[in-house]
Amino acid sequence: MSLTVSSCIRCGTTVFPARYLCPVCGGAEWSEIEAARGTVTALTVVRHRVGAHNSGGVHLASVAMQAGPTVIACLKSVAEKGDAVCLALDEQHRIVASRS
Ligand SMILES: [Zn+2]
């Protein structure tokens, strides 16, 4: 599933997740744009998650999307700060990133 962000029709501001009103101009009309690519800006590992049985922890990355907003994504493959990644939604609608 591809990931999309909302782009304000009036001023072009991109937001994620979607909002009712644009935080910049107050506009309420949006167009959906695909946001498949981004760059890793920070990495973190979440360990000791309640109910998680894998001891390796969950690798999360802050990804600055080319479309504008920054999102937190689950890393499917090893990545480092500055790496270009592809973004998608998995079947549980979580954002996942893999090295492109
Ligand atoms: Zn706007």
TrEMBL record:
Q: Pfam families of this UniProt entry?
A: zf-ChsH2
Which parts of the sequence belong to the ChsH2 rubredoxin-like zinc ribbon domain?
3-30
- Supply the InterPro entries for this chain: ChsH2_Znr, NA-bd_OB-fold, Thioester_dehydratase-like
PANTHER family found in the cross-reference section: BLR3430 PROTEIN
Tell me what this protein is called: OB-fold protein
**Organism of provenance:** Caballeronia udeis
| Phylogenetic lineage | Bacteria, Pseudomonadati, Pseudomonadota, Betaproteobacteria, Burkholderiales
